[in-house]
Automatic annotation (TrEMBL):
Organism domain of life: Bacteria
Taxon lineage: Bacteria, Pseudomonadati, Pseudomonadota, Alphaproteobacteria, Hyphomicrobiales
Protein name: C-type cytochrome
Record domain Cytochrome c: where: 35-137
Organism: Pyruvatibacter mobilis
Pfam assignment, any one: Cytochrom_C
Signal peptide: 1-21
Gene3D superfamilies: Cytochrome c-like domain
GO MF: electron transfer activity; heme binding; metal ion binding
Keywords assigned: Electron transport, Heme, Iron, Metal-binding, Signal, Transport
InterPro entries in the record: Cyt_c-like_dom, Cyt_c-like_dom_sf, Cyt_c_1A/1B
Amino acid sequence: MAAAGALLTAAALIAAPAAYAQDAAAEAPAAAAAGDPDKGKRVFNRCKSCHTVEEGGPNRVGPNLYGVVGAEFGSKDFKYSANLLELKAEGRVWDEATLDAYLKKPKDVIPKGTMSFAGLAKDTDRANVIAYLASFGGAAAE
Ligand code: HEC
C-alpha cells in the first residue's frame, strides 16, 4: 500500500507541471501573435521624439497615439496630411495588419503622408510596439 501511495504521489507530481505546461502552451500562440508590450515599450523609444501615447498626451511632430489600435485613421485633433485624411474618408482603420504595414514602411500605406520615419524592419519589433500601443486604450486593450 505504501508503494501504491508513493506511486500516486509521483504521478501527481508529474501530472501537475504537465497540466501547467499545457495551460501555458494554450496561451502562448495568442501572446506571440500579439507581441510583448514590455519589449514594445523599448521599441517605442524610436517613436517618442514625435509621439506620446498616454491618454490626453500632447501631440508632438506626430499625433498622440492613445487608443490608436483599432481606431479610424486621423482620429486626433492634429494637422494630418491630406493623404491621410483621404484614406480616413475612405473609412480606413488602424487594425493590426495596417499598423504592421505602416510601421514597416510608412509610404506603403500613406504614400504622401508626413511621417518621416524609415520604418521598423524587424517583424518582432513591429509586433511588440503594436502590443505596447494596444495597452493604451483602444479595442485591443479591453
Ligand atoms: C519624425 C517623426 C515621427 C516618428 C519618428 C514617428 N512618427 Fe508616427 N507620425 C508622424 C507624423 C507627422 C504623423 C502624421 C502622418 C500624416 O498625417 O500623414 C504620424 C502618424 C502616425 C500614426 C497614425 C496616427 C493617426 O491618428 O492616424 C501612427 C499609428 C504612427 N504615426 C505610429 C508611429 C510609431 C509606432 C512610431 C515608432 C515606431 C512612429 N509613428 C514614429 C511622425 C513620426
